[in-house]
Design a protein that fits this description.
It contains 4 helices and 19 strands. By secondary structure, the protein is mostly beta strands.
């Protein structure tokens, strides 16, 4: 399998199947275009419970499998909002990669997409991602959808980064993830950053995004004219 990222504003990943039998998976509706010679099947990719778990994690219950019937077939998966498509080599994350809701775009079929429950009640209540996150594991390549631009940070042992809720895309499994309250009454009322920050402790790699699509949607809703 070979791939290339196409487009700048709302990009897509275009995959070239070099051999018959190669396969990609995506959430339902993730495919943008494909050539002849590719078959599609749909299932829950792990059973009904796995499908329900993905639904709560922001993905679809069903996963689409696209399998090449001949070499040279091409298929593309497009982002849904302006941003980036980030390729991830799963061998670089032997323990897995924890992702925010909706970050998964597509992957080779050797990559497993499961749910990951937040370990602390405060993280689930106030972390902006609910109690359930996504966990990618296995081997092969996966592709993440990032809102805005992508920023990657590698944290040392005990090193901490504090991130506005919604700007975390993914981080290595095993990193400490918790929610920290913004200090100061005036900061809470007038700081414009909300009540909580996400606190991630190293060692490990963190993938961030410069756009918080929820904040952007709230901004738009405030300026869209409404009929009386």
């Amino acid at each position: 399998m070979k791939f290339r990222i196409v487009g700048n504003v709302v990009p897509a990943v275009e995959v070239l199947f070099e051999q018959a039998g190669e396969e990609m998976i995506t959430q339902s509706g993730g495919m943008a275009w494909m050539s002849d010679g590719i078959t599609m099947t749909t299932d829950t990719n792990g059973g009904a419970l796995a499908g329900l778990g993905r639904m709560f994690a922001g993905e679809s219950i069903f996963m689409a499998h696209y399998k090449a019937q001949k070499s040279g077939s091409v298929i593309a998966f497009a982002a849904t909002v302006p941003g980036k498509v980030v390729p991830v080599k799963m061998r670089e994350y032997p323990g897995g990669l924890i992702c925010q809701k909706g970050a998964f775009l597509c992957s080779q079929s050797s990559v497993r997409l499961n749910i990951e429950f937040t370990r602390k009640l405060s993280s689930g209540l106030f972390g902006g991602e609910g109690f359930i996150l996504e966990k990618l594991s296995g081997s092969g390549a996966a592709f993440l959808e990032v809102d805005g631009d992508v920023v990657e940070k590698t944290l040392g042992v005990g090193e901490v980064i504090k991130v506005d809720t919604g700007n975390v895309v993914a981080f290595e499994s095993g990193m400490k993830y918790e929610i920290e309250t913004v200090h100061g009454f005036k900061n809470i009322l007038f700081g414009g950053e909300g009540l909580f920050l996400t606190r991630i402790t190293g060692p490990g790699k963190v993938i961030l995004q410069t756009q918080n699509i929820r904040d952007f949607a709230n901004l738009l809703s405030g300026i869209i004219p409404r009929n009386n």
